[in-house]
Amino acid sequence: MDKRRRSDDDEPDHTLPLEKEARSAKRTISEDGHSFETNVDTMVEALKKTSTRLQKHIAQVPDRAVQIAERGKEVMTETYPPKTFEGLLDMLCPAKIDDVWTREEEERFQNDFAANPYRRFMESDAALPPKSNHNYWTMWEMIPRVRNCFPSDIIGAKALTTYGVDVDIGGGVMKPDPRWSSGFCERLTDLAMGSPCGANTRLLALLIRYVVADRLDDRREVHFGDHQTGDRFFGELESRVKRANSTESLQDIHAELRRDWKREGTYVPFASDIMRSIEELNGPVRSAQPMMPTPREGAPEYAVQTTDLTTLIKACDQTGDLGYANLSTVEQRAAFVAYGRTKQGPLQHKDGEQLNRLRIPLLEEGERVKARRILYRQRRDPPDDTPDDDTHDAMHDDTDNDSYDPYDDKTDNDAGILLDNSSSTSSRRHNNPLVEHPERLTTLSQREVLPRGEVDVRVQNNAKESLNGSCELMSSTQPLTMPEATFSLMKREQDLATVIGGTGTLSEGLRANTSRMVFDFGLGA
Q: Which is it for strands 302-304 and 166-168: parallel, antiparallel or unpaired?
């Protein structure tokens, strides 16, 4: 909270009938809102220490929360309806054939994948998550529905990440367990729905990688190339990592870049502030020995633990442009999105056969990504050549003709949705990119570009206006300015306890998050 000296006009008004209204609110919600009942007295006492103006604004949070939640339900129903199972299958992308990954390479890959032990394990009942792991099935329903991508696009080969728990698939062979834990799924879903990255799931994947890389004190060529923000900060950071040649820590390189930009008067992106928070939170658990590169190693892949996702959530929550946390948290914003999910998708039926009809092709896609990376690297750095200091993994260089971005395999483009007329396979649609690459249009053969029409524009505007920044569902990489976004349309004459009573129409989870929002803000947490 602000520790500055208050003027007479800022002195709290202790005459407001908060206690009486609080008792009334407690009776209203006591049956199924236990967290409100236990917190309301503490909230009232804490709010007495704040100014009258602040009391008025904090008191309006629950009322505004109800408005946002109900409008969010309408937006979710109208704009983000559950995908049909056929719609989920349409999101799967076919193999991309080019002068490096030829049809012969694809045929070889298909033969190998047919006998892949990991595939055989994935097809077995042992690889299915229990139906009691509700967060797993919710993750598979919500992330494709709202973010137009699969969980494996965030934690998977494309993002250079894996699930951090292995399982024996037979014969002592260890592979990442496809049965992600309930806590891991819950945190990943919260980040996908409620992080400041918004619809930019590539930036989210970058931040997840950074959590692990910083925890390991990784001195390898950490990849920063697929952030999809258009900001040159990450490209410069990646270049400095390469020039350091394993002699400096990520933290030191990042700090030096921030100092240089600030000295030049250049705006440091908000994602960098989150990275600074990650570094602070990783301090007690950072590896004592740095992770050093091995000869001819490609882009490193990171095993993500549940604690890493927790670290990122905390980093997002505690990072604000004024040096202290914003009002809402990742969990709270995700709770508003979840509340709007009035209809469930096909995977909520917890059908293992349907799940594997998605997971097996996605495993195939991930294995192909790894194989393609190796081929592109071999083409760029032949085994008999000794690369110089400026040579790096082809995936890192967006300007090189031989570079490989696995996300480009998706048939989507910044100027419009691309329809592949040369194949009956449905194109894959994913989250709207934030950076334009119109030059790609000239390289696409036998495809038709459909401009995004007024419907998409209206959908985006409606979603942004209705949620007003609190639980934004559309693309945004800017921090949420919650004091402005949450309070802008509130009634001005209601106090805390009265409007708390009005939250009785919400779900228990959402009431708990609203309660925590007010409680944390009132205590200055």
A: unpaired
Cα–Cα distance measured from residue 402 to residue 361, given in angstroms and rounded to the nearest whole number:
25
Determine the Cα–Cα distance for residues 102 and 376; give it in Å rounded to an integer: 12
User: How far apart, in whole angstroms, are the C-alpha atoms of residue 319 and residue 46?
Assistant: 23
State residue 382's pLDDT score: 57
pLDDT for position 343: 67
Residue 234, CB-side half-sphere exposure with 13 Å CA sphere: 24
Quote the pLDDT of residue 426. 35
The whole-angstrom distance between residue 234's C-alpha and the CA centroid of its chain comes to 17
Alpha-carbon separation of residue 182 from 130, 149, 189, 371, 372 (angstroms): 10, 20, 11, 30, 32
Whether 136 and 182 have beta carbons less than 8 Å apart is answered as yes
| Tens digit of each residue's pLDDT (9 = 90 or more) over 10-28 | 333 333 434 444 444 443 4
Which residues of the chain have a pLDDT value below 70?
1-39, 295-297, 342-343, 348, 381-525
Cβ-Cβ contacts under 8 Å for 301 (sequence gap 6 or more): 157, 160, 161, 162
Residue 381 to residue 482: CA distance in whole angstroms: 49
User: Dihedral through CA 443, CA 446, CA 451, CA 452, nearest 10?
Assistant: -100
DSSP assignment string, 253-295: HHHHHHHHHHHHTPPPPHHHHHHHHHHHHHGGG--SS-B---T
Three-state secondary structure along 351-404?
CHHHHHHHHHHHHHHHHHHHHHHHHHHHHHCCCCCCCCCCCCCHHHCCCCCCCC
Angle at 309 (CA atoms; ends 303, 314), nearest 5 degrees: 145
Task: Please tell me the distance from the alpha carbon of residue 164 to that of residue 434, in angstroms, as a whole number.
Answer: 29
Predicted confidence at residue 60, as pLDDT, reads: 81
Q: How many CB atoms within 10 Å of residue 43?
A: 24
Q: What angle do CA 373, 230, 400 make, to 5 degrees?
A: 35
CA 510 to chain centre: 20
Q: Are 519 and 42 in contact (CB under 8 A)?
A: yes
Please calculate the CA angle 214-270-332 and round it to the nearest 5 degrees.
90
What integer pLDDT is reported at residue 346 of this predicted model? 77
